[in-house]
Amino acid sequence: MGQLTMRDVRKSFGTSEVIKGVSLDIDHGEFVVFVGPSGCGKSTLLRMIAGLEEITSGEVMIDGAVVNNLAPVERGISMVFQSYALYPHMSVYENIAFPLRVAKMSKADMDAKVKRASAILQLDERLQHKPGQLSGGQRQRVAIGRAIVRDPSVFLFDEPLSNLDAALRADMRVELSRLHHDLDATMVYVTHDQVEAMTMADRIVVLDGGYISQVGSPLELYHKPKNLFVAGFIGNPKMNFQTVTCKSITEHGVSVELSNGTALTVPVSTADHKGADLVGQTLTLGIRPEHIVAEGGDIQLAGVPSVVERLGIHTVVYSSLEGDASQFMSVLEGTAPVQVGQKTHFGINATDCHLFGPDGLAFERQVALTTVELPSLNVE
Ligand code: ADP
Ligand code: MG
């Protein structure tokens, strides 16, 4: 129960194709997050699964059965939106019970389901309140309660936390992860926020202009982004990109020269880029801000900080590179002795670097998979 499959799913509005062939298998119990910038097709794809948007071509299957032509209520799914869509004149109890009343469930069964959902969501004390008497987070929990009572095999969420303030969003992320664990249900969650994706997902699907750019666990996407788009989208602050020139290919990797003349050999495989005469080509070097070090490193770069943000545990430094004035960000220790306008030396280790070809595709990094794939727990 709760297995979802998409086979070459496409969607056009008039002549404009917005979902351009998506194939994906989601297992029972998985928490899958669709993430990508605004307009990339996340909501459309989710609405096609829900049955709220016609499927132009391809197939959506739930538990092995094609549901393309089934109405939303026949698909065994529940959807929670950004706007809570609660009935203001009804109590919390009545709002949660609403779909069961529509389905003409007996009063005793309905009562048991509402009590169970309200206990899971810690709304027991609020059942007689009206939505107007609740906080934003509580209202969103009522909307989730209304989804839970239907016992769906798949939960669909479309940016359910976007209307909440930052602190509440962080709390709700934890609650949703807990809920997923408690219900053992399949959840598909749409967001433009990579932090929500990284913190809650078993697997992240990065969408870019109607295509799947990459699918992987949060750590796979962080350590092994397949292309510039995913590399720039996943991670906060964003990965730094520098234009470099390929000097040679050796058994140790790809040797490149930075615009300021610094040479570096990045330990990556060129196996996927066979045939391309890389030497002399312009490549993109990627380095995450948290991998720039204040001391040591395989190469050193001089930069002049223009903004220094002291966050307590970390210091975020925006600098311009000496030599070509390109901008880069670094995350240093909280007490790092950097100052605006004062030339500073930064270090980079070759093993932390990412390298992308002229086509924007990543060269395979030599990251040991053990650091990427966590061992699965055998809990009785
Ligand atoms: P996201 O949720 O990722 O922000 P959407 O799925 O809402 O993106 O939209 C994807 C693209 O489809 C956008 O370019 C949007 O303008 C277009 N679109 C969405 N719904 C409609 C519609 N009903 N009619 C025409 N175009 C639409
Ligand atoms: Mg959307």
Distance from first to last alpha carbon: 22 Å
Instruction: Kindly provide the name of the CATH class of the largest domain.
Output: Alpha Beta
Q: What name does CATH use for the topology of the largest domain?
A: Rossmann fold
Overall shape:
globular
> How can the largest sheet be summarized?
6 strands, mixed
Q: Percent range for helical residues?
A: 10-25%
Element-by-element helix/strand order:
EEEHEEEHHHEHEHEEHHEEEEEEEEEEEE
Tally of discrete structural domains: 2
Tell me the radius of gyration.
24 Å
Ligands present: adenosine-5'-diphosphate, magnesium ion
Order of the strands making up the biggest sheet: 6-7-8-3-9-10
The structural class is: alpha+beta
**Quick one: CATH superfamily of the largest domain?**
P-loop containing nucleotide triphosphate hydrolases
Mean pLDDT: 92
Short description:
This protein has 380 residues and is α+β, with helices and mostly antiparallel strands.
